[in-house]
Amino acid sequence: MCGIVGVTGNDNAVKILLNGLEKLEYRGYDSAGIYVNDQKGQDYLVKTKGRISELRSKVTPDVHGSTGIGHTRWATHGVVSVANAHPHFSNDDRFYLVHNGVIDNFQELKAKYLSDVPFRSQTDTEVVVQLIDKFAIEDNLDAKAAFLKTLSLLKGSSYAFLMMDREQPDTLFVAKNKSPLLIGVGDGFNVVCSDALAMLKETHNFLELMDGEVVTITPDKVAIQDADGNAVERKPFHVDMNADETDKGTYPFYMLKEVDEQPNVMRKLAQTYLSEHGEPQIDDKLIAAMEAADRLYIVGAGTSYHAGLVGKRLFENLAHIPTEVHVSSEFAYEQPMLSKKPFFIFLTQSGETADSREVLVNVNDAGYPSLTITNVQNSTLSREATYTLLLHAGPEIAVASTKAYTAQIALEAILAKALGEATGQIVAQNFNIRQQLGLVATGMQAIVDEKDTLEQLSNDYLMKSNKAFYIGRGIDHAVSLEAALKLKEISYVQAEGFASGELKHGTIALIEKGTPVIGFITQAKTAGLTRSNLQETMARGAKTLTIVRESLAIEGDNLILPDVDEMLMPLLSVVPAQLLAYYTSLNKGLDVDKPRNLAKSVTVE
Ligand code: G6P
Questions:
Q1: What pLDDT does residue 377 have?
Q2: Which of 134, 268, 312, 600 is catalytic?
Q3: Domain 450-590 grouped into CATH 3.20.20.70
Q4: How many angstroms is it from 372 CA to the middle of ligand 1?
C-alpha cells in the first residue's frame, strides 16, 4: 500500500507530483521518489528515505519537467532504503516504474528471465521494470507491448503500475489489478493518482480503471484498452469535494480536526438519510434485499470491524435480525458456515482494504447480495458491492480512524431503524433516531470541549505506563476494543480492550501497582458488574478511571457522558478515548497522524 501519482503535459509537473504525494502520505511514508522528464532530453530521478518533506528538500531548483511519476512507499519487499524506494528503473535507464501492491511470483520471474541482470534493490518492482526492458530489447517490442507481455506473466493479489519510457517521454503507461488507480482529466494535461484527494487541486474529473485494462496517457489523450485489446470509451465522473477539505487548517494534526468534526458528521448523516420527521430515507431495494435475508454478516478490518461489533447490537435490537461480525482477513480464508440467505455488509472507510475486498470477491462469486458502507465514493468496494451507502464524513487523513468509526455506527443505526420499521419491530418504531443523533451531536460537542481535562487525564494515567486496559461489558466491551486500538496505534502503549468479566479468568495477573484500567459504564444492565470488576483490579493495585453515562454515575466517577439512548452510547464513550490517545501521543512527541509501521489504506492482504 503505497501512493502513486503521475502527470503529463504540465510544466508544473514537479510541484504537482510533490503536492500529490503529500496528500497520499496516509498510504505509506517510509520513503519516496519522483522521476520527471522535460521532453528536451533532460530527466531527473530523486529518491529518499523518509517523508515527502525530505523528498522536497532533496529536489533542487534545477529539477524540472512536464511529465513525471512519483511514489510514496510503505515497505513490503525489502527494507526501507533509497535503493528500494520507487521509481525503479531498468539498467539501461530507459524505463521508469512506480508500483503499489505485491507480485507473488517475482522470485520465479527473476530466476527464469533475469538471472544475468544485476539488481540494485530487493523489490519485486525492479524485477518488473527489468523484465519490461528485457522484452523490449530481445523481442523488439515497443513500450506498450513489452509492458503487456510482462503483465501477462505476473501473479499478484493486487497491483497498480505507472510507467514511463524515455523514448516516448510524454506518455504514461498504466495498468492495475484490484489496487486503486484513477486518471484525472485536466485541460491540456492529464494526471494519475491512487486517490482523487491527491489531484483535487488539478481537476475534479476522474476516470476509473477496470482490472486488466492498460492505458496510455498523453497530454491530450487517454487511450484505454481492455484485456482483449479493444479500445474502451469511458466518461469521467465528477468528484464533488473541495481541495480545502483535505487541509488541516489551524489544527496541529488531522486527528484532532477529525475528532472535532464528529458532531457535524452526525448532523450531516441525519440530513442525508433522514426526513424532516426522522423517517429513514434509504433505497427501498436495499431494505427489501436485507429483509429477505435470514442473517447479516458484517465484515471489516481494524476500526471498521469494531464499528461492526456495535452494529451487530443495533441490527439485532432494532431489526431483530441475527448478525455476525467478522474480521475480513480471517473470513477470506476460513469462511464460516453461512446461513441459507446471507446478506453481507462491508464496513470500510477507504473502500479499498484488500482483506475486505477479497471477501467481497468471494461473496460476488457466490451470488450473495451485499452493501458497502464507505467514506469514499467510487471506491473499489463501493463499485463492486450490490449497494453502497456513503458516510459523508469528509476526507479522513489521520491514520487513526475517528470520525469514520462514529459515522459508521450512526449509519448502521439509521439502517437498522429503517430495516426494523420495515419488518414492523416496535422497538424500531419507538426509536427516534433523528432526535437521538441530535443529542449525540450535542453530547460529542460537550466532550470535545473538555480537551484540557482529557489532556490532564492522559498525563495522570497514561503517560507513565507502557500498558493499559480498557474494559467493559457488551457494547462497552466493543468500545473498549476500539479505545485500546486508538491508544496502541498512535501512542505505542500496549493496550488491551477486555470484556471486564473475563479479566479474572487469567488476564488480571497482568495488573500491577499503577496499571491504568479504564472502565466504560454506559449500560444499566451491566453497570454494577463492571464496577465490581474495576474494584477487583483496584484491589491488585490498578489505577482505575471511569467513563460513565450520566444516569449511571456515582460519586467519584471521572468522566461523565451525556445521556443518549443506550444503543448509541458508543458514539459518545469513544470520544474521550480518542482524545486520551491523542494527548498521550502528542505529549510523547510522536507523529500523531502518521504512526510508525502503519498506513491508512491497506491494499495488500
Ligand atoms: C488500516 C488503518 C485502520 C483501519 C483499517 C481498515 O489498518 O490503519 O485505521 O481501520 O485499515 O480500513 P478501512 O478503510 O477498510 O476502514
A1: 87
A2: 600
A3: no
A4: 14
CATH of 3-89+160-241, one of 3.60.20.10, 3.40.50.2000, 3.10.180.10, 3.40.33.10: 3.60.20.10
Ligand 1 binding pocket includes 349 (Cβ within 6 Å): yes
Q: How far is the CA of 539 from the centre of ligand 1 (A)?
A: 37
Q: 345 alpha carbon to ligand 1 midpoint, in Å?
A: 16
Q: Using a 6 Å cutoff on CB, does residue 353 contact ligand 1?
A: yes
Cα 338 to Cα 14, 71, 295, 346: the distances in Å are 51, 41, 9, 16
Distances in Å between the alpha carbon of 99 and those of 74, 125, 177?
A: 11, 6, 11
Q: What is the DSSP letter of 38?
A: -
Domain positions in the chain are 3-89+160-241, 253-446, 450-590
How do residues 406-451 score in pLDDT, each as one tens digit? Answer: 999 999 999 999 999 999 999 989 999 999 999 999 999 999 999 9
Domains 253-446 and 450-590 share a fold: yes
Ligand 1 center from residue 169 Cα (angstroms): 37
Catalytic residue among 2, 47, 403, 486: 2
Q: Hey, what long-range contacts does 488-491 have (CB within 8 A, 24 or more apart)? A: 489/399, 489/400, 489/581, 489/595, 489/598, 490/255, 490/399, 490/400, 490/581, 490/582, 490/584, 490/585, 490/590, 490/592, 490/595, 491/462, 491/581, 491/584, 491/585, 491/588, 491/590
Please indicate whether residue 136, judged by its CB atom, sits closer than 6 Å to ligand 1: no
Pocket mutation for ligand 1, best pick of 345, 349, 389, 605 (most atoms within 8 Å of C-beta): 349
Amino acid at 74: W
Once rounded to an integer, what is the mean pLDDT over residues 476-489?
Answer: 98
Cα of 601 to ligand 1 centre, how many Å? 6
Q: Which residues of 358-371 are buried (b: 16+ CB within 10 A; e: fewer)?
A: bbbeebeeeebbbb
Measured CA to CA, the distance from residue 512 to residue 508 in angstroms comes to 9
Is 193 a residue of the active site?
A: no
For ligand 1, say whether the CB of 380 is within 6 Å of any of its atoms: no
Contact 8, 30 (CB under 8 A): no
Catalytic status, residue 600: yes
Tell me the three state secondary structure of residue 461: helix
Nearest CA to ligand 1 atom 4: 302
Average pLDDT for 353-372: 95
Q: What is the pTM of this model?
A: 0.85
Q: Is the CB of 600 under 6 A from ligand 1?
A: yes
C-beta of 382 in contact with ligand 1 (< 6 A): no
The CATH number fitting domain 253-446, selected from 3.40.190.10, 3.40.50.10490, 3.40.640.10, 3.20.20.80: 3.40.50.10490
70 ligand 1 Cβ < 6 A: no
**Element holding 545 (H helix, E strand):** strand 543-549
The string of pLDDT tens digits covering residues 109-164 is 999 999 999 999 999 999 999 999 999 999 999 999 999 999 999 987 678 999 99
pLDDT > 90: percent of the chain: 87
